[in-house]
């Protein structure tokens, strides 16, 4: 039942034009645009090496947080979640299926973005398993926060808030603008954001060839624990 529901959720996401724009088109365009034109001083000669990890983090954010929050919020508004909650599929299994569909979409995102980055001259380093662990932890953190938002706010408020957070984190989350460009007093706070921790952790691994960045992983695990626990506690199915 979980596999069938996950396949359905994935097909629905892939058929939704706005979701594809958010999860596939925008990250790819940002990678190509900022990778070929020096619109922002990345503080590094290896512009693609800086941008690609940040765009991968942004892709995870767009799918696991923004896309999941908006789609779940409107499913809750229209009573879809309520009807599914009374079906033979347990509620925990429904959330598991949603998580699986997010992971499938993210896998497609990673394949596409890595292919584009390699075409632009990217030379990744480090252990891909460490990068995968960071992406999974980041996905859990974003999904917890997205479900918390979708399960507590009205659908329209979720739509506005999720898109606003996406834009703010694109600018201030270390995705395309280095955190060093911000005032020193703000760098410590911004560095604790999940998208910043994921971006910097992926750069440590894929650009610098470092081992597992335990600090970044710890930040992501902490956000995941808090977000998922709060979502489980406060999520309203109708």
Layout of helices and strands:
Layout: H1 2-15, H2 17-36, H3 47-77, H4 80-85, H5 91-119, H6 128-152, H7 155-172, H8 184-190, H9 194-206, H10 214-234
Helix pairs in contact: 1-5, 2-3, 2-5, 3-5, 3-6, 3-7, 3-9, 6-9, 6-10, 9-10
Shape: globular
Helix content: over 70%
Count of domain modules: 1
Write the element-wise H/E pattern from the N-terminal end onward.
HHHHHHHHHH
Mean pLDDT: 90
What's the total helix number? Answer: 10
Describe, in short, the structure shown:
This protein is mainly α and 238 residues long. 77% of the residues lie in helices and 0% in strands. It contains ten helices and no strands.
What this model shows, in words?
The chain is mainly α. The protein has one domain. The chain contains ten helices and no strands. Helix 3 runs antiparallel to helix 5, helix 3 packs antiparallel against helix 7 and helix 3 packs antiparallel against helix 9.
């Amino acid at each position: 039942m979980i596999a069938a529901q996950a396949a359905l959720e994935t097909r629905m996401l892939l058929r939704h034009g706005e979701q594809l724009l958010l999860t596939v088109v925008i990250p790819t365009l940002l990678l190509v645009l900022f990778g070929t034109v020096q619109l922002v001083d990345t503080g590094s000669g290896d512009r693609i090496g800086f941008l690609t990890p940040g765009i991968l983090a942004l892709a995870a954010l767009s799918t696991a947080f923004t896309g999941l929050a908006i789609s779940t919020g409107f499913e809750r508004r229209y009573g879809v979640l309520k009807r599914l909650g009374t079906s033979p599929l347990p509620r925990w299994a429904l959330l598991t299926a949603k998580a699986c569909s997010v992971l499938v979409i993210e896998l497609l995102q990673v394949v596409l973005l890595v292919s584009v980055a390699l075409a632009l001259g990217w030379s990744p380093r480090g252990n891909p398993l460490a990068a995968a662990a960071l992406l999974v932890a980041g996905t859990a953190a974003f999904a917890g926060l997205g479900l918390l938002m979708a399960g507590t706010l009205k659908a329209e408020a979720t739509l506005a808030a999720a898109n606003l957070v996406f834009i703010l984190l694109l600018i201030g989350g270390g995705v395309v603008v280095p955190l060093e460009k911000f005032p020193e007093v703000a760098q410590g706070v911004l560095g604790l954001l999940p998208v910043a921790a994921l971006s910097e952790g992926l750069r440590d691994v894929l650009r610098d060839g470092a081992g597992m960045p335990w600090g970044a992983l710890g930040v992501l695990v902490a956000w995941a624990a808090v977000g998922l626990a709060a979502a489980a506690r406060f999520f309203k199915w109708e």
